Amino acid sequence: MARQISRLLDDEKLYFRCQTQGYERIRDFSPDVIAKQLEGLLNDLV
Questions:
Q1: How far apart are CA 16 and CA 13, in angstroms?
Q2: In terms of DSSP H, where are the helices of the chain?
Q3: How far apart (Å, rounded) are the C-alpha atoms in residues 29 and 45?
Q4: pLDDT at 17 (0 to 100)
Q5: Residue spans per domain, the chain
Q6: What are the C-alpha distances in Å from 28 to residues 6, 15, 31, 32?
Q7: What is the pLDDT of residues 1-46, one digit of tens each?
């Protein structure tokens, strides 16, 4: 793990790519997305 962190710190392109992908991924966990998923799950149970 330390080697991967070091690589991330040394490789600016990799750092920014991971940063961008992280920002994109976090959208999957926005309150609106989670609420819709929960609503769908609850509707399936009823």
A1: 5
A2: 2-10, 12-26, 31-45
A3: 22
A4: 97
A5: 2-45
A6: 28, 21, 9, 9
A7: 999 999 999 999 999 999 999 999 999 999 999 999 999 999 999 9
